[in-house]
Amino acid sequence: MTMLDASTNSLPDWLRRRAFSNPDRLAIICGDTQRTFSELDVDVDRAARWLASHEVVTGSRVAVHLPNSIAFVQLVHAISRLGAMLIPINLRLTGDEIGWQLGDVRADLLITGDLTAQLSAARDRLAPDTRAVVIDPHSPNFIGGASASPVFVESHATDEVHSIVYTSGTTGRPKGALLTYGNHWWSAIGSGLNLGTHVDDRWMAVLPLFHVGGLSILQRSVIYGITAVVHESFDPGRVNQSIDEDRVTIISVVSTMLRRMLAERGDAPYPEWLRCVLLGGGPAPEPLLRACESRDIPVTQTYGLTETASQLATLPPDEALLKLGSAGKPLYPNELEIEVDGQLAVRGLPGEIIVKGPIVTAGYFERPEETARAFEGGWFHTGDAGYLDDAGYLYVLDRRDDLIVSGGENVYPAEVEAVLMSHDDVTEAGVIGIPDEEWGQRVVAIITPRDDCSPDIAQLSEWCRRHIAAYKIPVDFAVQQNPLPRNAGGKLLRRELRRTWAPYPR
């Protein structure tokens, strides 16, 4: 069988095939643990038998509530090897939120590192048949004595569901996006054709593995035959050290992570083998991109969603400095357009980003009405706003739900935030619209200042006046010392800011 069998429309066990093709090549670096593809394959067989001893069979839904760890890596592949479905659970959720997701998806098994404080509230919401087991996620031998002899699934149909990944819930109650083997496969292929694949590539995962951005790195590792360098959490010092010592060639980050990496790095250059800093999580501030350009840091902007198995559009590395601010063109073989009032928009006109292609989710778990709405007209509606330039490059503006309409003018919060964060006194900025009797909405900025700094609001207003139109300038400013709320993928949660600051006085 080839890696994609056109006659049967199926895909092999990617790790098993890679262990056969390149058994001695390094597959994973995770803390002090390293595994070749053949060693990881043996570990995954053992983990699959352990899962089978906990009654996991083909079609089971297995929830994994673990930090980035060697156990998480093994379980991703072991669940697939049994033909079960992976449900990664966000560690940042409350017990009530976790319980809701587990109940919504009717998980058969929950694997966690802790069943105490955070999950105590979740247990009351579990389906009656949901079982729970606690493991040590940082042990490569987390498996107990129980074992079984299941029949392993050696191939998967492209439309078979690999994972159910819940959306971040930026616009309401999270939904379980059904991601198929075909989705993950074409995501990896499209990314590889765009960024290129090198036999010595090492892709660092500092994004959570329960997030599609982190999970996709594990898939690419076994499909490409490259090393995944997995960090439990983001620490700029450790990340920079790992780039040097582990010879990381690609890293996926969001803007706040990259900014902290640069601050920690100081004037020291990055090594020549770092060939791609894949920057996602929302529109990147141009000052950050310019700073990277001046330091020869190979930043490549990308745009993606849970529903597209990670990347949807990405700049190729050789155009990173030619199209600053653009997320590139859709990855092969997908299509991307802009829609305004139900019609495809002309180039340059802002509207909703819509997409179709093999990376797009099969739908939402047991949400037929929401699935139908999302795919109205045959295109998947992302809910994000953007435009295409004359050459077809995508520029992402914002979530449509975050758009501010003030006095009849559209204000995109990310644009205003980028201007504010280019000021020396500002670390983070969040911009929201608050109801206003005269203008419909007024623009409000919530900022976190740099250490030992007390921002001058008049100066910030003047700074904005130099860079953006008058109607975009915040009418009110609020200062908070705590970091702004973000989801697991690093995206700013403006709905949380609106909830906190909607009563903000004039």
Structure in words:
The longest helix is centred in the N-terminal third of the chain and has 17 residues. Helix content is 29%, strand content 27%. The chain has 506 residues and is α/β, with parallel strands linked by helices. It has 3 domains: 141 residues, 3-Layer(aba) Sandwich (Rossmann fold), CATH 3.40.50.12780; 217 residues, ANL, N-terminal domain (Rossmann fold, 3-Layer(aba) Sandwich), CATH 3.40.50; 99 residues, ANL, C-terminal domain (GMP Synthetase, Chain A, domain 3), CATH 3.30.300. Helix 1 runs antiparallel to helix 2. It has 14 helices and 27 strands. It starts with 9 loop residues before the first strand and ends in a 5-residue tail after the last helix. The model has no long low-confidence stretch (mean pLDDT 88). It is globular and about 70 Å long. A 9-stranded mixed beta sheet has the order 3-2-12-11-13-14-15-16-17, sandwiched between helices. A 5-stranded antiparallel beta sheet has the order 19-18-20-21-22. A 4-stranded parallel beta sheet has the order 5-4-6-7, covered by helices on one side.
Layout of secondary structure:
Elements lengths: L9 E3 L1 H8 L4 E5 L2 E4 H17 L7 E5 L4 H12 L3 E4 L6 H11 L3 E4 L4 H7 L7 E4 L20 E3 L3 E6 L9 E5 H15 L6 E4 L6 H13 L2 E4 L5 H10 L4 E5 H11 L10 E5 L5 H9 L4 E7 L4 E5 L14 E2 L4 E6 L2 E2 L6 E6 L11 H7 L5 E9 L5 E6 L4 E3 L2 E3 L1 H9 L4 E11 L3 E10 L7 H11 L8 E4 L14 H8 L5
Parallel strand pairs: 2-12, 4-5, 4-6, 6-7, 11-12, 11-13, 13-14, 14-15, 26-27
Antiparallel strand pairs: 1-8, 2-3, 9-10, 15-16, 16-17, 18-19, 18-20, 20-21, 21-22, 23-24, 25-26
